[in-house]
Amino acid sequence: MGYHRINPAELEQLDDRPADVRSISEAAGLTTRDDKLGLRLYEADPGEMIPLAYHYHDEQVEAFYVLSGELHVETPDEDYVVPENQALVIDPGSPHRAFNPDEAAGPVKVLAIGAPSVDDAHVYDPDEA
């Protein structure tokens, strides 16, 4: 058995993205692709995107739970606005781009869950669809 109590405020920035991203799953020892779960905390200022690109996954289900602020998610069919204390779950094969719009009043803080944690993201170009 394993238990991991993690304070995201103590974690280092995951990479050089514009948005602040902290990997809770990595801190818990789920450090490789093909682990059962990917769990990250994002904080994006106005004008920042959460993922690196408009994308979709082959196998991974992705969920965004908004802790504070309002998350915008662009899809080919509809643009979603996800308010605080609500979630958007995205099935595999569904293109999306999560972001905090330029005109937002402040940052958005989001818990992002991906399962399984596979490296199956593909860039989606809406102009080529």
Keywords:
3-stranded antiparallel sheet, mainly beta, 10 strands, 5-stranded antiparallel sheet, single chain, Jelly Rolls, 3% helix, 1 helix, 129 residues
The CATH homologous superfamily is called: Jelly Rolls
Mean pLDDT: 92
Biggest sheet: strands, sense, closure?
5 strands, antiparallel
**Count of domain modules:** 1
CATH level-3 fold name: Jelly Rolls
Uncertain stretches: none
Shape verdict = globular
Count of individual helical segments: 1
DSSP helix fraction: under 10%
The secondary-structure element order is: EHEEEEEEEEE
Rg is 14 Å
- Give the end-to-end Cα distance, rounded to a whole number of Å: 46 Å
How much of the sequence lies in strands comes to 35-45%
Main-sheet strand order equals 1-2-9-4-7
CATH architecture: Sandwich
Q: What is the CATH domain class?
A: Mainly Beta
Secondary-structure-derived class: mainly beta
Count of DSSP strands: 10
Description:
The chain has one helix at residues 24-27; strands spanning 20-23, 38-44, 55-57, 61-68, 70-74, 79-83, 87-90, 97-99, 108-115, 121-123. The strands form three sheets. It has a five-stranded antiparallel beta sheet with strand order 1-2-9-4-7. A three-stranded antiparallel beta sheet has the order 6-5-8, with no helix packed on it. It has a two-stranded antiparallel ribbon with strand order 3-10. Strand 5 (70-74) and strand 6 form a beta hairpin. The protein has one domain (16-118, 122-126): Jelly Rolls (Sandwich). The model has no long low-confidence stretch (mean pLDDT 92). With 129 residues, it is mainly β. It is globular.
